[in-house]
Amino acid sequence: MGEGFTTVYGRNLIAELPRFVNRPYLVVTMADLWPRFEPSFDDGLAAVHLVQTLEVSELEVAVDALPAAGSVIGLGGGQAIDVAKFIAWRRRLPLFQVPTAMTVNAPFGHRSGLRRDGIVRYLSYAVPEAVYVDFDVIMGAPPGLNRAGVGDILCYHTAHLDWRLARDRGMTEPQWPYDEGLVAQARDRLDAVMGALDEIHDVTERGIRTLMEAHRWGGTTYHDSGWNPRHIEGVEHFYFYALEKRTGRHFIHGQPVGLGIVVGSVLHGSGAEEMTTALHRAGVDIRPEAMGVTWQDAEAAMRYLATFVREAGLWSSIADVRAVDDDVVARVRELVVGSYGPWEANG
Ligand SMILES: [Zn+2]
Q1: How much distance in Å is there from the Cα of 104 to the middle of ligand 1?
Q2: 268 C-alpha to center of ligand 1: Å?
Protein backbone atom coordinates (compact mmCIF):
# COMPACT_ATOMS: atom_id res chain seq x y z
CA MET A 1 0.00 0.00 0.00
CA GLY A 2 1.27 3.47 -0.88
CA GLU A 3 2.39 5.82 1.84
CA GLY A 4 1.07 8.84 0.02
CA PHE A 5 2.54 11.80 -1.83
CA THR A 6 6.11 12.97 -1.23
CA THR A 7 5.82 15.29 1.75
CA VAL A 8 8.46 17.64 3.10
CA TYR A 9 8.36 19.22 6.57
CA GLY A 10 10.41 22.27 7.42
CA ARG A 11 10.62 26.03 7.52
CA ASN A 12 11.07 28.86 5.02
CA LEU A 13 9.75 26.50 2.36
CA ILE A 14 7.71 29.04 0.38
CA ALA A 15 10.67 31.39 -0.15
CA GLU A 16 12.61 28.47 -1.60
CA LEU A 17 9.99 27.61 -4.26
CA PRO A 18 10.98 30.24 -6.90
CA ARG A 19 14.50 28.77 -6.92
CA PHE A 20 13.47 25.39 -8.28
CA VAL A 21 9.94 25.24 -9.72
CA ASN A 22 9.60 25.27 -13.51
CA ARG A 23 9.41 28.87 -14.68
CA PRO A 24 7.34 30.86 -15.26
CA TYR A 25 4.99 29.59 -12.57
CA LEU A 26 1.33 30.09 -11.73
CA VAL A 27 0.33 30.61 -8.10
CA VAL A 28 -3.17 29.53 -7.07
CA THR A 29 -4.25 30.99 -3.74
CA MET A 30 -6.94 32.98 -1.92
CA ALA A 31 -7.34 36.77 -1.88
CA ASP A 32 -6.90 36.96 1.90
CA LEU A 33 -3.66 34.93 1.82
CA TRP A 34 -1.93 36.53 -1.15
CA PRO A 35 -0.71 39.76 0.54
CA ARG A 36 1.05 37.65 3.15
CA PHE A 37 2.87 35.41 0.66
CA GLU A 38 3.33 37.63 -2.41
CA PRO A 39 6.78 38.91 -1.27
CA SER A 40 8.11 35.33 -1.42
CA PHE A 41 7.74 35.21 -5.22
CA ASP A 42 9.89 36.81 -7.91
CA ASP A 43 9.77 37.81 -11.58
CA GLY A 44 9.17 34.15 -12.50
CA LEU A 45 5.53 34.62 -11.53
CA ALA A 46 3.43 34.23 -14.71
CA ALA A 47 0.15 34.99 -12.96
CA VAL A 48 -1.70 34.54 -9.71
CA HIS A 49 -5.15 32.94 -9.74
CA LEU A 50 -7.21 33.99 -6.71
CA VAL A 51 -9.90 31.38 -6.18
CA GLN A 52 -13.42 32.80 -6.26
CA THR A 53 -15.39 29.80 -7.43
CA LEU A 54 -15.28 26.01 -7.45
CA GLU A 55 -17.77 25.79 -10.36
CA VAL A 56 -16.14 23.77 -13.11
CA SER A 57 -17.71 25.77 -15.96
CA GLU A 58 -16.27 28.99 -14.51
CA LEU A 59 -12.90 27.39 -13.79
CA GLU A 60 -12.66 26.20 -17.41
CA VAL A 61 -12.98 29.82 -18.57
CA ALA A 62 -10.41 30.97 -15.99
CA VAL A 63 -7.89 28.29 -17.02
CA ASP A 64 -8.18 29.27 -20.68
CA ALA A 65 -7.46 32.88 -19.78
CA LEU A 66 -4.28 32.14 -17.81
CA PRO A 67 -0.92 32.74 -19.53
CA ALA A 68 1.44 29.93 -20.54
CA ALA A 69 3.41 28.56 -17.59
CA GLY A 70 5.89 25.87 -16.60
CA SER A 71 4.38 24.81 -13.27
CA VAL A 72 1.58 25.40 -10.79
CA ILE A 73 1.96 26.25 -7.09
CA GLY A 74 -1.08 25.65 -4.86
CA LEU A 75 -1.00 27.78 -1.73
CA GLY A 76 -3.85 27.72 0.76
CA GLY A 77 -6.47 25.60 2.48
CA GLY A 78 -8.70 23.19 0.63
CA GLN A 79 -10.05 25.41 -2.12
CA ALA A 80 -6.78 26.80 -3.50
CA ILE A 81 -5.24 23.34 -3.30
CA ASP A 82 -8.15 21.79 -5.21
CA VAL A 83 -8.16 24.45 -7.92
CA ALA A 84 -4.36 24.14 -8.27
CA LYS A 85 -4.84 20.42 -8.94
CA PHE A 86 -7.48 21.17 -11.54
CA ILE A 87 -5.28 23.72 -13.36
CA ALA A 88 -2.23 21.42 -13.26
CA TRP A 89 -4.38 18.63 -14.70
CA ARG A 90 -5.89 20.75 -17.47
CA ARG A 91 -2.50 22.23 -18.45
CA ARG A 92 -0.51 19.03 -17.77
CA LEU A 93 1.95 20.94 -15.60
CA PRO A 94 4.11 19.93 -12.63
CA LEU A 95 2.35 20.76 -9.36
CA PHE A 96 3.81 21.92 -6.03
CA GLN A 97 1.41 22.11 -3.09
CA VAL A 98 1.74 24.21 0.05
CA PRO A 99 -1.12 23.73 2.54
CA THR A 100 -1.51 26.73 4.86
CA ALA A 101 -3.65 24.88 7.43
CA MET A 102 -4.46 21.31 8.48
CA THR A 103 -8.22 21.61 7.92
CA VAL A 104 -8.66 18.91 5.27
CA ASN A 105 -6.70 16.20 3.46
CA ALA A 106 -7.07 17.87 0.04
CA PRO A 107 -3.27 18.38 -0.47
CA PHE A 108 -2.79 14.62 -0.21
CA GLY A 109 -5.56 13.38 -2.53
CA HIS A 110 -5.56 12.83 -6.28
CA ARG A 111 -8.86 14.45 -7.17
CA SER A 112 -10.35 17.92 -6.64
CA GLY A 113 -13.59 18.49 -4.79
CA LEU A 114 -15.23 20.95 -7.19
CA ARG A 115 -18.86 21.83 -8.00
CA ARG A 116 -20.97 21.24 -11.08
CA ASP A 117 -24.23 23.19 -10.86
CA GLY A 118 -23.57 23.48 -7.15
CA ILE A 119 -23.17 19.74 -6.57
CA VAL A 120 -19.87 18.33 -5.29
CA ARG A 121 -17.94 16.44 -7.95
CA TYR A 122 -14.53 14.85 -7.48
CA LEU A 123 -12.75 15.61 -10.72
CA SER A 124 -9.30 15.73 -12.26
CA TYR A 125 -6.22 13.79 -11.25
CA ALA A 126 -2.90 15.18 -10.09
CA VAL A 127 0.09 13.85 -8.20
CA PRO A 128 2.19 16.74 -6.89
CA GLU A 129 5.97 16.76 -7.17
CA ALA A 130 5.85 17.36 -3.41
CA VAL A 131 3.65 18.72 -0.63
CA TYR A 132 5.51 21.29 1.48
CA VAL A 133 4.35 21.49 5.10
CA ASP A 134 5.91 24.61 6.60
CA PHE A 135 5.65 24.62 10.40
CA ASP A 136 5.61 28.42 10.67
CA VAL A 137 2.95 28.75 7.98
CA ILE A 138 0.68 26.15 9.63
CA MET A 139 1.26 27.70 13.07
CA GLY A 140 0.23 31.07 11.63
CA ALA A 141 -3.22 29.78 10.56
CA PRO A 142 -6.31 30.36 12.74
CA PRO A 143 -6.17 27.63 15.43
CA GLY A 144 -9.77 26.59 14.76
CA LEU A 145 -8.95 25.72 11.14
CA ASN A 146 -6.01 23.56 12.19
CA ARG A 147 -7.85 21.76 14.99
CA ALA A 148 -10.86 21.00 12.79
CA GLY A 149 -8.57 18.73 10.77
CA VAL A 150 -9.00 15.91 13.31
CA GLY A 151 -12.60 15.48 12.11
CA ASP A 152 -11.45 13.77 8.93
CA ILE A 153 -9.44 11.21 10.95
CA LEU A 154 -11.73 10.60 13.95
CA CYS A 155 -14.46 9.80 11.42
CA TYR A 156 -12.72 6.46 10.80
CA HIS A 157 -14.39 5.35 14.05
CA THR A 158 -17.93 5.61 12.64
CA ALA A 159 -16.83 4.55 9.15
CA HIS A 160 -15.58 1.25 10.57
CA LEU A 161 -18.75 0.70 12.60
CA ASP A 162 -20.78 1.20 9.42
CA TRP A 163 -18.63 -1.17 7.37
CA ARG A 164 -18.79 -3.91 10.04
CA LEU A 165 -22.53 -3.45 10.36
CA ALA A 166 -22.88 -3.80 6.59
CA ARG A 167 -20.76 -6.97 6.65
CA ASP A 168 -22.80 -8.48 9.51
CA ARG A 169 -26.11 -7.72 7.78
CA GLY A 170 -25.00 -8.72 4.29
CA MET A 171 -25.36 -5.13 3.06
CA THR A 172 -21.86 -4.49 1.72
CA GLU A 173 -21.62 -3.17 -1.81
CA PRO A 174 -20.24 -5.76 -4.26
CA GLN A 175 -17.21 -3.61 -5.13
CA TRP A 176 -16.34 -2.99 -1.48
CA PRO A 177 -16.35 -6.25 0.50
CA TYR A 178 -15.26 -5.79 4.12
CA ASP A 179 -11.44 -5.61 4.32
CA GLU A 180 -9.89 -5.98 7.76
CA GLY A 181 -6.48 -4.92 6.41
CA LEU A 182 -7.77 -1.52 5.27
CA VAL A 183 -9.59 -1.06 8.57
CA ALA A 184 -6.39 -1.85 10.49
CA GLN A 185 -4.39 0.67 8.44
CA ALA A 186 -6.96 3.38 9.13
CA ARG A 187 -7.08 2.39 12.79
CA ASP A 188 -3.31 3.01 13.09
CA ARG A 189 -3.78 6.60 11.90
CA LEU A 190 -6.80 7.09 14.14
CA ASP A 191 -4.83 5.82 17.14
CA ALA A 192 -1.89 8.11 16.32
CA VAL A 193 -4.17 11.15 16.22
CA MET A 194 -5.99 10.07 19.39
CA GLY A 195 -2.58 9.94 21.06
CA ALA A 196 -1.67 13.47 20.01
CA LEU A 197 -4.86 15.46 20.65
CA ASP A 198 -3.20 17.96 23.00
CA GLU A 199 -0.31 18.49 20.58
CA ILE A 200 -2.78 19.04 17.74
CA HIS A 201 -4.78 21.44 19.92
CA ASP A 202 -1.59 23.40 20.61
CA VAL A 203 -0.42 23.10 16.95
CA THR A 204 3.07 21.96 17.96
CA GLU A 205 5.54 20.42 15.51
CA ARG A 206 4.62 16.95 16.73
CA GLY A 207 0.92 17.77 16.44
CA ILE A 208 1.43 19.00 12.87
CA ARG A 209 3.43 15.95 11.86
CA THR A 210 0.94 13.52 13.39
CA LEU A 211 -2.17 15.04 11.84
CA MET A 212 -0.56 15.72 8.46
CA GLU A 213 0.85 12.18 8.23
CA ALA A 214 -2.65 10.86 8.96
CA HIS A 215 -4.06 13.14 6.23
CA ARG A 216 -1.27 12.02 3.92
CA TRP A 217 -2.40 8.43 4.23
CA GLY A 218 -6.10 9.33 4.23
CA GLY A 219 -5.74 11.44 1.09
CA THR A 220 -4.37 8.69 -1.13
CA THR A 221 -5.97 5.57 0.33
CA TYR A 222 -9.22 6.28 -1.52
CA HIS A 223 -7.33 5.90 -4.80
CA ASP A 224 -4.91 3.24 -3.57
CA SER A 225 -7.72 0.98 -2.38
CA GLY A 226 -9.48 1.15 -5.75
CA TRP A 227 -11.63 4.23 -5.04
CA ASN A 228 -13.01 2.65 -1.88
CA PRO A 229 -14.25 5.12 0.76
CA ARG A 230 -15.56 2.51 3.20
CA HIS A 231 -12.67 2.55 5.68
CA ILE A 232 -12.46 6.36 5.84
CA GLU A 233 -15.99 7.74 5.55
CA GLY A 234 -19.49 6.84 6.60
CA VAL A 235 -22.58 8.10 8.36
CA GLU A 236 -20.76 11.07 9.95
CA HIS A 237 -20.11 12.54 6.50
CA PHE A 238 -23.70 11.73 5.47
CA TYR A 239 -24.87 13.76 8.45
CA PHE A 240 -22.70 16.69 7.33
CA TYR A 241 -24.15 16.54 3.79
CA ALA A 242 -27.70 16.38 5.22
CA LEU A 243 -27.02 19.42 7.42
CA GLU A 244 -25.50 21.28 4.47
CA LYS A 245 -28.50 20.44 2.27
CA ARG A 246 -31.03 21.50 4.92
CA THR A 247 -29.36 24.75 5.91
CA GLY A 248 -27.66 25.73 2.64
CA ARG A 249 -24.68 26.88 4.69
CA HIS A 250 -20.96 26.43 4.18
CA PHE A 251 -18.99 24.91 7.02
CA ILE A 252 -15.46 24.32 8.23
CA HIS A 253 -15.50 20.64 7.27
CA GLY A 254 -14.36 19.18 10.61
CA GLN A 255 -17.10 20.83 12.67
CA PRO A 256 -20.22 19.27 11.11
CA VAL A 257 -18.30 16.03 10.46
CA GLY A 258 -17.36 16.06 14.17
CA LEU A 259 -20.99 16.45 15.18
CA GLY A 260 -21.78 13.68 12.70
CA ILE A 261 -19.27 11.41 14.47
CA VAL A 262 -21.23 11.89 17.70
CA VAL A 263 -24.57 11.29 15.92
CA GLY A 264 -23.19 8.13 14.26
CA SER A 265 -21.60 6.84 17.48
CA VAL A 266 -24.88 7.31 19.38
CA LEU A 267 -26.80 5.50 16.63
CA HIS A 268 -24.29 2.64 16.75
CA GLY A 269 -24.24 2.70 20.55
CA SER A 270 -20.45 2.63 20.49
CA GLY A 271 -17.79 5.09 21.64
CA ALA A 272 -19.97 8.22 21.66
CA GLU A 273 -18.54 9.59 24.90
CA GLU A 274 -14.97 8.82 23.90
CA MET A 275 -15.40 10.58 20.56
CA THR A 276 -17.09 13.65 22.07
CA THR A 277 -14.29 13.95 24.60
CA ALA A 278 -11.63 13.56 21.89
CA LEU A 279 -13.16 16.28 19.70
CA HIS A 280 -13.41 18.58 22.70
CA ARG A 281 -9.84 17.91 23.71
CA ALA A 282 -8.54 18.70 20.21
CA GLY A 283 -10.49 21.96 20.36
CA VAL A 284 -13.02 21.37 17.56
CA ASP A 285 -16.21 23.15 18.56
CA ILE A 286 -19.04 20.91 17.33
CA ARG A 287 -21.86 22.90 18.92
CA PRO A 288 -24.30 23.97 16.19
CA GLU A 289 -24.01 27.60 17.26
CA ALA A 290 -20.24 27.46 16.69
CA MET A 291 -20.93 26.64 13.02
CA GLY A 292 -23.60 29.28 12.57
CA VAL A 293 -26.69 27.05 12.82
CA THR A 294 -29.13 26.21 15.64
CA TRP A 295 -29.85 23.04 17.58
CA GLN A 296 -33.16 23.02 15.74
CA ASP A 297 -31.26 22.81 12.42
CA ALA A 298 -28.93 20.16 13.79
CA GLU A 299 -31.83 18.04 15.06
CA ALA A 300 -33.82 18.44 11.86
CA ALA A 301 -30.79 17.16 9.92
CA MET A 302 -30.59 14.13 12.25
CA ARG A 303 -34.24 13.28 11.60
CA TYR A 304 -33.75 13.84 7.87
CA LEU A 305 -30.67 11.58 7.70
CA ALA A 306 -32.38 8.31 6.69
CA THR A 307 -34.39 9.98 3.91
CA PHE A 308 -31.35 11.92 2.77
CA VAL A 309 -29.06 8.89 2.36
CA ARG A 310 -31.70 7.10 0.29
CA GLU A 311 -32.29 10.13 -1.93
CA ALA A 312 -28.56 10.71 -2.35
CA GLY A 313 -27.90 7.02 -3.09
CA LEU A 314 -25.13 6.80 -0.51
CA TRP A 315 -23.64 3.49 0.65
CA SER A 316 -25.21 1.50 3.46
CA SER A 317 -24.73 2.67 7.03
CA ILE A 318 -26.42 2.76 10.42
CA ALA A 319 -28.72 5.42 8.92
CA ASP A 320 -30.50 2.62 7.03
CA VAL A 321 -30.87 0.48 10.15
CA ARG A 322 -31.65 2.66 13.15
CA ALA A 323 -34.11 5.53 13.02
CA VAL A 324 -33.24 8.82 14.68
CA ASP A 325 -35.84 9.16 17.43
CA ASP A 326 -36.24 11.55 20.38
CA ASP A 327 -33.84 9.47 22.49
CA VAL A 328 -31.05 9.73 19.91
CA VAL A 329 -31.52 13.47 19.51
CA ALA A 330 -31.56 14.00 23.29
CA ARG A 331 -28.48 11.84 23.82
CA VAL A 332 -26.43 13.72 21.18
CA ARG A 333 -27.35 17.04 22.73
CA GLU A 334 -26.62 15.79 26.24
CA LEU A 335 -23.15 14.59 25.20
CA VAL A 336 -22.24 17.77 23.33
CA VAL A 337 -23.52 20.19 25.94
CA GLY A 338 -22.03 17.98 28.67
CA SER A 339 -18.53 18.32 27.17
CA TYR A 340 -18.63 21.83 25.76
CA GLY A 341 -21.14 23.53 28.04
CA PRO A 342 -24.11 25.54 26.82
CA TRP A 343 -23.35 28.09 24.10
CA GLU A 344 -24.52 31.05 26.22
CA ALA A 345 -21.58 30.55 28.58
CA ASN A 346 -19.08 31.19 25.79
CA GLY A 347 -21.03 33.01 23.11
ZN1 LIG B 1 -14.17 14.63 5.05
Answers
A1: 7
A2: 20
